[in-house]
Amino acid sequence: MAELDLTRIPNHVAIILDGNGRWAKERGKPRIYGHRHGAFNLRDVAKYANSIGVKYLTVYCFSTENWKRPDDEVNFLMNTPVWYIKRFWKTMVENTNIRYKMIGRRDRLPKKLLQAIEEMEEASKNHTGLTLSLAIDYGSRDEITTAVKKIATEVKENKLNVSDINEDLITNNLFTKDYPPLDLMIRTSGEYRISNFLLWQLAYSEFYFTNTYFPDFTPEKFKEALIDFQSRNRRFGGLK
Ligand code: IPE
Ligand code: IPE
Ligand code: MG
Question: What is the C-alpha separation between 19 and 222, in angstroms, rounded?
Fold first, then answer.
């Protein structure tokens, strides 16, 4: 297998971390057992990504559609991260140069979760390493709809002309406005769909699908995805 070329590391990688539930089921355990292992694994993948110079890692943790799941699972997903952030991520904030961000709606999250996330964002805001962006209550259609409403309001209030609306303006009204273009989109667990993640941002990203469930998607497997990415020929509509 080819080696990872450290001079050509993608700037921005996204992961649809999927398969936690099935991973647990295979072990005869409840779904939340899989979420817990997925969270531990995310820590390892993020540390590895940081160590090799990935600048942005955007991970799908909870979609706007995931509220449809049974109450006990939603409660687990909304409450456990608070404990988890306090117990582990705090030490990551203190011991690594990872910068934390959250993308997604903030108005429907439990107060405690939002508070823990905002503390983590604040504590790491001057960090210069990887930006680990957690997509929570994130839906790409919701994000685009919100951007359209904001732009329409500015037009109505004569702060903006219709002729000012262009691709950059739309990009700059998304949660990811300060992020570099998305280079690589990974989905684990053998599903071949996007499930409402980063629809605008992925226009020219490369895709990598793997059957591995997220709790088993170790840094080594992440590295394999990057090696595969480095073999791609990105043309962006031109000729190369
Ligand atoms: C991904 O794992 C994590 C979340 C969506 C919260 P799933 O919970 O979707 O696991 P599967 O797909 O049911 O195995
Ligand atoms: C997508 O996974 C959302 C996250 C990984 C957070 P799902 O498991 O919710 O997606 P579907 O329902 O299989 O499309
Ligand atoms: Mg799933």
Answer: 15
Choose among 202, 211, 210, 234: nearest CA to 58. Answer: 202
Rounded to the nearest angstrom, the distance between the alpha carbon of 20 and the centre of ligand 2 is 10
Q: Say which ligand is closest to the CA of 62.
A: 2
Is 75 noted as a catalytic residue in this protein? no
Ligand 3 (ion): residues with CB under 5 Å are 18
Pocket test of ligand 2: the residue of 18, 60, 186 to mutate, having most ligand atoms within 8 Å of its CB, is: 18
Nearest-Å Rg of the Cα atoms of the chain is 18
**Gap from CA of 121 to ligand 2 centroid (Å):** 25
Question: Which residues make Cβ contacts (< 8 Å) with residue 99, sequence separation at least 6?
Answer: 124, 125, 126, 127, 128, 129, 130, 131, 132
Q: How far apart are CA 237 and CA 239, in angstroms?
A: 7
Q: pLDDT digit of tens for each residue in the chain (240 aa)? A: 789 999 999 999 999 999 999 999 999 999 999 999 999 999 999 999 999 999 999 999 999 999 999 999 999 999 988 888 887 766 778 888 999 999 999 999 999 999 999 999 999 999 999 999 999 999 999 999 999 999 999 999 999 999 999 999 999 999 999 999 999 999 999 999 999 999 999 999 999 999 999 999 999 999 999 999 999 999 999 998
Sketch out the chain's domains with CATH numbers.
12-139+180-230 (3.40.1180.10)
Is 0.90 topped by the overall pTM?
Answer: yes
Q: Is 18 known to be catalytic?
A: yes
Which ligand approaches the C-alpha of residue 19 most closely? 1
